[in-house]
Amino acid sequence: MISRQRLVLAAVGAAVGLSLSQPVLAQDKAKEKCFGITKAGQNDCANLSGSHSCAGQSTVDNSPDEWKYVPKGQCKTMKGLTADEAKAKLKK
């Protein structure tokens, strides 16, 4: 006969196994990089100019070389820039 403790452990193990088999990740949803819309300290990763390489290191609001992931198709409605537009703006 299986002890109650083993039964509980088996159930927990099965539940964890099921949750790990098909995780829902943020990157699975359709997203795009949107430049020029971030607030200081709220960027998602490295900027175009190469002055930093990590999230949360932007120092200026709405800098054209800083980006944030947004739902695909929403960047323009947020008055953001594509990577090419941001690069062109930085060269001016």
UniProtKB/TrEMBL annotation:
Residues 1-26 form the signal peptide. The keyword Signal applies. Keywords: Signal. InterPro entries: DUF2282_membr (IPR018740). This is DUF2282 domain-containing protein.
